[in-house]
Fold this protein.
Amino acid sequence: MTMPKRPSMVLQQSIIPIHYSLKIVPCPVNFSFLGDCSIEICIAEPTFGVTLHAKELNIQTASARDHLLNGYSVTASSVSYNIEDETITLEFPRALHVGSSWILDITYIGLVNDKLNGFYRSAYTDANNNIHQLTTTQFESTHARRAFPCWDEPAMKATFSLTLVAPQGTTCLSNMSVHSTILLENGMQEVSFLKTPIMSTYLLAWMIGDFDYIEAYTSGDFSGEPVLCRVYTPVGLADQGHYSLDLAIKSVEYFSRLFNIPYPLPKLDLVAVPDFAPGAMENWGLITFRTYALLIEEFGSQDRKHEIAATVIHEISHQWFGNLVTMEWWSDLWLFEGFATHLAYIVVDELFPEWDIWSEFVKRIQEVLKHDSLRTSHPVEVGVANPSEITQIFDEVSYMKGASVLRMLSAWLGQDHLLLGIRKFIHKYMWSNANTEDLWITLAEECKVDVPGFMRKWTRQTGYPVLSVTELDECTVLVRQNIFLSTGDMRADEDSLIWPVPLALVCAGDSEPRNIMMDSKEMILKVDTTRWYKFNMGQTGFYRVSYPSKTLALLGQTFGTDQLNAANRVGLLTDVAALVTSGIAPTSSFLTLLKYFEDEENYMVWAEVSLRLTEMFSVWLEQPEAIVNALKEVQRRLFTKIVKRLGWDFLDGEDPSTGNLRAVAIRFAGRAGDPEIVAEARKRFRLFMRNRDVSAIPPDLRFPVFEIIMRATEGVEEYEDIVNYYRETFIPAEKVVALSVLGYGQSVELVRRTLAFAMSSEVRTQDILTAIATLRSSVIGRAELWNFMRHHWDILYERHCDDIGFLDYFVVLSIESFSTIERYHEVQSFFANKDTTTYDRILATCLEGIRMNILWLERDCKDVEEWLQANGYLTSPELTSGQASRSSSGTGQHTPHESNSGTSTPLSQHSYLQLRNSYDVASQELTIDTQVQTIPMSIGPQQQLSYHVHRQLQTHYPAPKVNPQQQQQQQQQQHQYQHQNQDQHQPLLLSQQKTCPVQGLELGSLERTRPAISARPRTLEREMELLRLSGDYGF
């Protein structure tokens, strides 16, 4: 357990910014802007040079003046650019002395880019087909430097005064209220804003464009003065903002009381931005959202309301916990994001107690529990030193594991004590910065317990434990903790970690959990093993539990009673599902447990059942058709029963959770091919598409019905109906639904059309991943997506390497579902010669996940087949024992163009053992199959990328197959190219990279060289060049 590393790229500490005065003048003709930045600084020691962060800014003039000495000034003699560090250094002919009040005056030209970060542009079309242009900002984490020279670090707080020059009639917004507006003679206006409080650069924001808005005021009961809250929307969508506006009013008042600090700013704006990379951003006083994350129509689904509530409240909590008190460095990102997530659930539970939000929390954390059970995970407190590392920690571990361990702390301390400690922490560090240790010390002072000792092991150690329960006799159990690895291949040297585990043990008949702290490897407890008992009651602990099969059956028998609530039933289900992937329990135990849910009525539980079945289907997707159909029958029987009970139509006064349950049951019964449900979906789909009859498919059922239709047809008529619906609807949630289901198409033609459509100008950059995500649901979709990514990787990388999280998730969507050794080797081979700096964490995680899938499938194929046969789901005499475990060629579907190397071959015993034992010897390396086809380079690394070329690629995608002779020729050409260029690039060994701590498996054991494309600096001139080449091309 080590302290996270401190940053290696922070700027000189002897110069501190005090105040920024900014004037921004966008130039819409060439998508550039003029910037005038004056920075008041404090100098601690004499210096001839000042270094600031700046990226893609062309400095025009730079000088320093001492406004205390009658305007004495000195002009910079030179400006040097450090592209790698993203800094500029202003050199002066005379020293800037201590004791003076210096102001740096810098004028520059920047780019209003289309990358969804920094200062960028967007556009949208309203219901009357009017096109509206807008510009906006996204500065977290390190993108303020794209808009103005600055000290772009969270600890370098300062105040800001901003002036925007924009066309008259447009709306100008920033963190503070408008101070003055001056109309200029050229049809422009100069809008100045009030000075901000002291804050970090990443929290500054502004935007210019056409918006509608609605507004309301807080009561002012706590602060004594009402706060103006507004929701700004694209023109024509203001009516969809009322739900979020109401949440904002309630949240501002709640947090003002909770922290005993009035909201610090004069106003709060929530803005729906048409093009926006993250879900939302907590800019102080000007919170920005994706339209989908903020707006909802009056009859929107209950699930959407839950999502919006959690998001809006999360961002508003940051106005205190994150903005008023800010992290010291990005290593403490988890603290503020984890706490904001945890606080959001507390507030939602208070505002909407009927939602059972903590059961939803238990469901939501399953993804991070899965991620954190891989060796490639990282501690909650993770050291980061540069922008590419910072971007990669905006993940589930920082957000949801952070929130989970805080919830566990809350359960141990008591929620009231925790909140009092947070209040004390905010009062102590307001207007300043703090780190994780500062919070633990404050909580320890408030609660009089060893909070640091408890929490350090949860935040500085990767992973979490599984508690294995052994029944020694009828009144005694032995509990042992081990690190939980979903690959099931833990080495002895990996099992030295010990966590302090709150057991929260409940036995049959107990009214309250026994609060026992397990801080050793093993513990013996007195428990009546003849009756049911459960650890982690309430699912507040971040760990798994493995019970004896007898006890698991006793727990299953409590379902349908009030002995275990929904959160506990979800916890049992997910624990068993996780244990089977790791080999601790056979997959048949999970299938057996499902029988206890047949009479379940809780939506949250059924939603989790559906997710666990989906996970299993994903791994078993390429197994023999008989096996896949038998698993579908398991799913069909479970969910069809619910549909028959609830029907299709919503009843007046019906509980919203019943509607949610109906939707999930229809979706998964239809996904399993139930003929009655498919027929009903077809009928309703035709009515809806013909007349836009909303009653035929209410909003809650739109996604299920659209998905069923796409899965049940290979024709294009229904596909085109959904595409046209996407084009004509102006409801953000409906656009997301229509776009999401296109990937469920079952033919090569539809899959390729979806890929082409996703990359077209009709789909916003922020929505490309939404469009392709569901392609993973079919064998054909996976193969086509993987081939698309390989063929067009250079273009994807060039175009999106700076887009927040885009490459990470494109890689995830393209490879994480694989479950064969051939695909595993293909992925290793493909990325072996790529510069993975910006996505190395996620790539390593995907490879480890594929490895988990392979091991799970090989281990339990026969077990699943035998269970299906024994329970009457599998009756085909043609399927022999072992066929399931040896086949990986698909489900009987046609899988053309699946891979350039041919269809998958069986996983040999040697390959399986090689993969299984790849960690046993530190020096052992996996051998890459030399027969795996290498994708030819469509664009040579030494060539300048052209978006005209890319336009042709998209127009004619997919690239046709080449015959074997052509393949051999292309391989020879690539080999020749690599040989010719081997002296031009210094080999970069994996051992020298900041990758996962997996020996021999991160990216394969190959040496790799950085391609020239990644070495080319992204300067302002380069951006303008790309802009000219791309024109209006939406890709």
